[in-house]
Amino acid sequence: MAVLVLTRKSNQSIMIGDDIEVSVLAIMGEKVRIGIQAPRNIPVFRKEVYLEIQQERAAQLSDSAREVDAALSRLGGASPAP
Fold first, then answer.
1. Is residue 70 within 8 Å of residue 79, measured between CB atoms?
2. Which residue has the higher pLDDT, 19 or 67?
3. Do 25 and 35 meet the contact criterion of CB atoms below 8 Å apart?
4. What is the pTM of this model?
5. Is the pLDDT of residue 73 over 60?
6. Degrees (nearest 5) of the Cα angle 36, 37, 38?
7. pLDDT in tens, 2-17
8. Quick one: pLDDT at residue 31?
9. Residue 43: burial class (beta carbons within 10 Å; 0-12, 13-18, 19+)
10. How far apart are CA 20 and CA 42, in angstroms?
11. What is the C-alpha to C-alpha distance for residues 73 and 66, in angstroms, rounded to an integer?
12. CA-CA distance, 23 to 9, in Å (whole number)?
């Protein structure tokens, strides 16, 4: 994966592809307020929220896999995974 580092001032933007615009709305000390315009079908999350969602999905998949293994074991079709 490549990393691109840019310097932008307030009211300047960058484009990601043809459909996503990231704008610097304001700079207040060490905080930068950004705005993101993207099509509605593209989810946009803060990274910490995105990571929580991924952890929840992984836990749900793990639970589902255990349920399938248990059902197969009851049917005698396969042994549960370790």
1. no
2. 19
3. yes
4. 0.65
5. yes
6. 110
7. 899 999 999 999 999 9
8. 94
9. exposed
10. 9
11. 10
12. 9
